[in-house]
């Protein structure tokens, strides 16, 4: 891993600890972080085609690896899909790749991006920050692990609403203070 790659990983880990875990945006993240079961991979891709190749490798790696060793993967891709609309369109290709690899139903892909914007929201809406990461990233998750986490967290359907309330209470100034 290059020094620059280490910086990308370090900034993503800081975001995970301060925002995702610290604000409890994902109640399932803390356990895999503490157990060091998150694989961080930096793609050097500069094209969509190369990113798809890297994504295929990471999906296959996760599918073939014991969940005790790697339960989830963050594929960070800082050199491609900087524009959120391009990134958003790419997600259809990523889902198609899951199907091509016969991993649909076994794995899924969640999305994070520095410009993340939910449909129907304004660009600066604080609720978008639940999915705003320092760099574009694809979060590869195991369906079995999600099912177990949801069983252990009986109010999983309320996470989204709780996150909105958390972000609205925090506000943009509070978000900025997290990363000073």
The biggest beta sheet, please?
4 strands, mixed
Runs with pLDDT <50, length 5+?
Answer: none
Judged by helices, strands and strand pairing, the structural class is: alpha+beta
Instruction: Please give the alpha-carbon distance between the first and last residues.
Output: 26 Å
Q: Helix share of residues?
A: 40-55%
Total number of helices: 6
Overall body shape: globular
What does this structure look like?
With 180 residues, the protein is an alpha+beta fold. The protein has one domain (3-178). Helices cover 49% and strands 12% of the residues. The chain contains six helices and four strands, in the order ααβαβαββαα. The chain has helices at 3-21, 29-34, 48-64, 84-100, 143-152, 159-178; strands at 38-42, 72-76, 107-112, 137-142. A four-stranded mixed beta sheet has the order 1-2-4-3, sandwiched between helices. Strand 1 (38-42), helix 3 and strand 2 (72-76) form a beta-alpha-beta unit. Helix 3 packs across helix 4 (84-100). The two termini are 26 Å apart.
List keywords for this structure.
6 helices; alpha+beta; 49% helix; single chain; 180 residues
Summarize the structure.
The protein is 49% helix and 12% strand.
Write the layout of secondary structure elements.
Elements: H1 3-21, H2 29-34, E1 38-42, H3 48-64, E2 72-76, H4 84-100, E3 107-112, E4 137-142, H5 143-152, H6 159-178
Parallel strand pairs: 1-2
Antiparallel strand pairs: 2-4, 3-4
């Amino acid at each position: 891993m290059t020094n620059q790659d280490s910086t990308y990983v370090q900034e993503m880990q800081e975001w995970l600890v301060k925002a995702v875990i610290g604000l409890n945006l994902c109640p399932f993240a803390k356990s895999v972080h503490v157990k060091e079961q998150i694989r961080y991979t930096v793609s050097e891709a500069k094209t969509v085609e190369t990113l798809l190749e890297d994504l295929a490798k990471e999906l296959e790696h996760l599918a073939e690896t014991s969940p005790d060793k790697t339960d989830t993967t963050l594929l960070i891709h800082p050199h491609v899909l900087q524009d959120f609309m391009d990134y958003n369109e790419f997600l259809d290709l990523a889902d198609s790749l899951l199907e091509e690899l016969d991993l649909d139903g076994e794995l899924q892909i969640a999305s994070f991006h520095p410009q993340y914007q939910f449909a129907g929201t304004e660009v600066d809406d604080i609720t978008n920050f639940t999915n705003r990461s320092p760099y574009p990233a694809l979060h590869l998750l195991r369906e079995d692990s999600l099912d177990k986490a949801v069983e252990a967290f009986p109010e999983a359907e309320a996470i989204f609403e709780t996150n909105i309330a958390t972000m609205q209470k925090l506000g943009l100034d509070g978000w900025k203070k997290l990363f000073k």
